[in-house]
Each structure stands twice: as C-alpha cells, then as structure tokens.
Amino acid sequence: MIILMNKNTTQEQIDRVIEWISSAGYKPHLSQGVERTLIGAIGDDRGRIHLKSAAFLPGVENVIPILKPYKLAGREFREDNTVVRVGDVRIGGGEFVVMAGPCSVESEEQMMECGYVAKKAGARILRGGAYKPRTSPYSFQGMEEEGLMLLKKVGDKMGMPVVTEVMNTVDVDLVESYSDILQIGARNVQNFALLKKVGRSCRPVLLKRGMMTTIEELLMSAEYILSEGNEQIILCERGIRTFETATRNTLDISAVPVLKELTHLPVIIDPSHASGHAKYIIPLTRAAVAVGANGVIVEIHPEPEKAMSDGPQSLRPEQFYQLMDEVNLLSNAMHRRIEGVQ
C-alpha cells in the first residue's frame, strides 16, 4: 500500500502514520518529494484490509494499493527519477555517464595506464575487478584485496570514484571500504543473501541483469536491496542468453525503455559483456545513448591481447577515445532534439 499525505501535512502527522504502519506489522518507507509525501507500507497481504483504515488518520489524503510485485522499485511508489550521487557524479540526472576500466586489476602499471586513459577521455567512474567470477576454476580469479588497494589508489590519483564487484556476503565490508559503488554481477543477481547485505550498505549498488533474468526478476532483485534501506541503485542491462552465437550474449536494447516506464531507478548498459567483441562496443554504445540509457560501463585495456580476462571485448585506448568522441556528439544532439521538442 502507498499512503499519500496531504500537501500541507505536518511532520507530526507523518511520524504518526509511520508509527501506525509499524504497529500494524508493516515496514514503513518514506518518500518525500517536492510537492507530496508518500509512505509505503511494505509486507504481505494479510493485513491489507486493516491498512485501508489509514485513510482516516490525520494528514492522509488517500491509500493506494500497489499492484506490481515490486513495491519500492516501481513508479507507483515514486514518479520522480532516482538520481544516484557518487561524489560530483550524478547517474540518472541528465548526464550520460561512462564508467570504464579493465575487466580485472592485474598490476599497478596496467591500472595506472587504464586510469589515465579513462580520465583523459572523459569517463566519470573507474571500474576494475578485484574478485572475478569465472566459469573455469583454473582461470584468473582476481587479486582480491591487493587489487582493491590498487583500484582505490589509482581512483584517488585520478580523482575518480571507483566501482568493483562483490561476490560474497563476507567480503561486503572489505569491498565497501575501498569502493564507491558495489557491483552485483549477473551471476549473483538472485543471490538474495548478498542482495540483503548490500541493501544495508551505505554505498550505491550497480545491479546487473542476469543472462537468464526477466525484467520483472531484475526489479524484484532491486526490491531486495531497497527493502533493506539502500535506495541508491543503478540497473544494468548486460545482455541475455539466446540461441544466437555471433555475440557473447544478446543485448536487450528494448529493456531500457521498458525499465524506464516501470521503475524510477537509473539504467545503464554494458556493451562489453553483451557483445564479447571490442568491434561492437562503439555501435552498441551509440544505441545506448539513442535509446535513453543513463550511461554505459565498458572495458578498456592497454594491451587486450595480454589481458588476464576478457581481452577480446576490451577496447584499446585509441578505440576508447573514439567512443567518447561519439558519445559526446550523440549526447549533445539528443539534448538539442529534446530541447527543440519542448
């Protein structure tokens, strides 16, 4: 249920409604917009009839049932777009944000070169994997804490926030101490214990869609994080598994406008994992700008042929510079078009 408060409601009335929701056995979630205050009552359906009586509390304008299974992630709960703030970077705030860096942190020299290229080209956030989920147990698994230290060192030197993946609940606190954004990878999108753990974190979460995950399942995974109190979530479309073998996965470009309709959370695209081939990343990034995504996360490497993971889908520095030039041109054109329509 959503409890819609009157425009002139007082803080005392809001507090009273929150207290009443808790006493009814539900978890209250407060959303205060510029004009209206919404209070979500989250829980099972057993007390739904009882909740309707909240309409008689002082300051309450209406009690509205939420029809979607995801309560906090849906636009029924919040019409305004969520803007995730990381330092001076605003994801979902109008700027097309590019996150870039190597698939895995391999050495200080490699990380410094990637950081320099990302910063020079205009990327806003530096990525790098310290813990690597690999299909084979014999593949490179990442440098773990040493990798986290190198990532943070380079991020600090370049003045860029960093994003890296966390794979295990026991590592969340450690990764949180080094990273500005916690990434939940495709393989962990329905690791509910991990989702709950990062839901209690103070860091924003980059939640990647699983290769076999429906859009509704992705939003339900976001709901786990939101229900624990963390509202700073970035959704990421990174390709789904289909019968097609020409690319590593199939980029579901239609997921962006669908998600934009269903949720207030920002949406970005990962063209690197979607395609698996460096030659397709620039055209897919063009598509991301055109379809209204809030950004992309791409992999770069000074020498992709020597990369310890995902070399074939990593852009060389000169390719990344070209990508950023095209992003800037397309973003400016899109803004002019939108302003012209208005």
Domain count, please report it.
2
Spatial order of strands in the largest sheet: 13-12-11-10-9-8-7-14
Pairing-aware structural class of the strands and helices?
alpha/beta
Radius of gyration: 21 Å
CATH architecture heading of the largest domain: Alpha-Beta Barrel
Number of helices: 11
Indicate the mean pLDDT: 92
Main sheet characteristics: 8 strands, parallel
Which CATH C-level class of the largest domain is it?
A: Alpha Beta
Shape: elongated
Please report the total strand number as a whole number: 14
Helix fraction bin: 25-40%
Task: Please provide a brief summary of the model.
The chain is of the alpha/beta class. Helix content is about 35%, strand content about 20%.
Molecular structure report:
By secondary structure, this protein is of the alpha/beta class. It folds into two domains: 2-64, Phospho-2-dehydro-3-deoxyheptonate aldolase, domain 1 (Alpha-Beta Plaits, 2-Layer Sandwich); 84-341, TIM Barrel. It has eleven helices and 14 strands. It has helices spanning 11-23, 48-51, 108-121, 145-158, 172-178, 192-199, 215-227, 255-262, 271-275, 281-291, 317-341, and strands at residues 2-5, 27-32, 37-42, 60-64, 84-86, 89-91, 97-101, 125-127, 162-165, 181-184, 205-208, 233-237, 267-269, 295-299. Strand 10 (181-184), helix 6 (192-199) and strand 11 form a beta-alpha-beta unit. The chain is elongated, with a radius of gyration of 21 Å. The mean pLDDT is 92.
